[in-house]
Amino acid sequence: xxxxxxxxxxxxxxxxxxxxxxxxxxxxxxxxxxxxxxxxxxxxxxxxxxxxxxxxxxxxxxxxxxxxxxxxxxxxxxxxxxxxxxxxxxxxxxxxxxxxxxxxxxxxxxxxxxxxxxxxxxxxxxxxxxxxxxxxxxxxxxxxxxxxxxxxxxxxxxxxxxxxxxxxxxxxxxxxxxxxxxxxxxxxxxxxxxxxxxxxxxxxxxxxxxxxxxxxxxxxxxxxxxxxxxxxxxxxxxxxxxxxxxxxxxxxxxxxxxxxxxxxxxxxxxxxxxxxxxxxxxxxxxxxxxxxxxxxxxxxxxxxxxxxxxxxxxxxxxxxxxxxxxxxxxxxxxx
Length: 335
Prior knowledge:
8 helices, 5-stranded parallel β-sheet, 26% helix, alpha/beta, 7-stranded parallel β-sheet
């Protein structure tokens, strides 16, 4: 019985421009170790401190989590912030290493990269997956929920290369039993004119926040129509819990909060350990983006709200009473 893949498992090493790894990378490495030999794919944007590759501390961290090699992809002057450019680099790397799988974090940008790699390499692609493994035929098998969370599926990829974009918090990152010393390999890729045809003419950095990124947070407090535009109680509870703030489509459409906070089928897909929905009805669109959460808590004054059907804990009450009291009690317990 085959339990691991024959070729290496590439993991896209998402990082900030400073070279700091995204927290989700360690989760991907944890999953990748169960699939086969783990190789990292480092794509650093030209002109940033990370362009030359990971520093010694980052390499050590990757080794602690089982990476046996790190491939630094040099895209020349091409803009590595563009998905077509990154996709061409990863496609070349997958072909050059004979990779059997490519794992990415399921962000908007990476899902586009996954689709482009799948098209170029004629590979099977699964996005928004919650897990990945290998079946007894040596195929990559990805788990994901579909139809707004009503079905749990397992998707076997029948091509030589399987591309899987996994949601953040799919697993808890765990170091390998034995640390490795990753070998460094460098690959230069000449990006086609077509991939570089799009250019970024303006870039605005997101306002710095002490809160975790919405797609990576382990705790998310979400406000919906019931907030009537006042997110103060939602933000207060999120800060006490060290979590992120999310919103429903109604809240973002009304302009109560920025669109990047929207959770749902056309927004961010999340899978935190704890989801708290305040004044959220639980419409199908929203459920499709949060139903994989570990524990779901609903606070709504309407006992007939659909979200109570999927909630682990439900509180029928005014969110402007329940949330501040909860925050105050948590502060008391925290001392």
